[in-house]
Amino acid sequence: MAGGRYAGLGFVGLNDDPKSPVIITGRKTAPGKPRTAAQKEANRLVSRERVANEHGFANLKA
Fold this sequence. Notes:
By secondary structure, the chain is mainly alpha-helical. It has one domain (5-61). The protein contains one helix and two strands.
């Protein structure tokens, strides 16, 4: 997942072009619509990449 920056689900993206993402976020779904297994796995991968950055900032603040 190289080529963009990672953001949480609350981020509203800058670029909607899937071929050249600027910001990579997880997948949201509408209320009452469950995520597919592929969407859940994609969210896990994005979260895994983001957590290292989040922990780094937390250590700087502490």
